[in-house]
Inverse folding.
């Protein structure tokens, strides 16, 4: 029972983190001219977030190797 709850929590975090990160990056790109909720409803937020996560991992791997 506890394992299923933890799995649901972590899968929710893993699914929502790229979208939140992408929305934040796009909101900064718009320099706050659009409201955060408007940017959150637009497409491509999850893709931008996944790209940002991949870029961060690439930088970390490059620095340490």
């Amino acid at each position: 029972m506890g394992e299923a709850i933890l799995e649901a929590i972590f899968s929710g975090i893993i699914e929502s983190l790229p979208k939140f990160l992408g929305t934040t990056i796009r909101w900064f790109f718009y320099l706050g001219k659009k409201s955060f909720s408007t940017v959150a409803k637009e497409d491509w937020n999850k893709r931008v977030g996944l790209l940002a996560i991949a870029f961060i991992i690439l930088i970390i791997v490059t620095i340490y190797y």
In short: The chain has three helices and no strands. Residues 2-64 form one domain.
